[in-house]
Specification:
This protein has 154 residues and is mainly α. The protein folds into 2 domains: 60 residues; 64 residues, no CATH class. Helices cover 68% and strands 0% of the residues. Helix 1 runs antiparallel to helix 2 and helix 3 crosses helix 4.
Length: 154
């Protein structure tokens, strides 16, 4: 880890998180047919980003470097795969629904980070996707595009 980079990154993430919180207050607090307003996720994500950036800034004062910084090789292949998957996820979210698109994105992400154990990745992805969908749609009474209409499940 590079201490200077971590400090600059924590300040940048703190600014981005603060901007998320401030700008989310300008979004409507309620949406038609939903008890959860569109301002909730950006605001909570901003708060989480602020807290994590403060933690990172604090950690930069705690760890010591031995003087010789190791040059880590950047892994462009994994980064490109996850970036491409994220772009496709955002593009196809409305067409194939939250459940299928999130499941596929998580499986691709898990397999990109650590190959093997496809069944474990599939089970974790399915459980995470269904739990988040259930909590958001059933408990919080929010709205998400669950399944595509051509499946006839919604």
């Amino acid at each position: 880890m590079n201490k200077t980079f971590d400090r600059f990154a924590s300040v940048a993430f703190l600014a981005i998180g603060t901007l998320f919180v401030i700008e989310s207050r300008k979004i409507s607090e309620s949406a038609y047919g939903s008890n959860v307003g569109p301002d909730i996720f950006p605001m909570y994500l901003g708060v989480i980003l602020v807290l994590l950036s403060l933690r990172l800034f604090y950690e930069t004062f705690r760890y010591r470097t031995d003087g010789k910084a190791e040059k880590e090789k950047l892994d462009y292949k994994r980064f490109s795969v996850i970036l491409g998957a994220a772009i496709l996820y955002a593009y196809f979210l409305e067409d194939i629904g939250y459940v299928i698109s999130t499941f596929l994105f998580l499986v691709i992400g898990f397999q990109t980070m650590q190959k093997g154990k496809l069944w474990v990745s599939a089970v974790i992805s399915a459980l995470f996707t269904l739990v988040v969908y259930f909590v958001f749609v059933e408990v919080l009474k929010g709205s998400l595009p669950g399944f595509p209409s051509w499946l006839g499940l919604s």
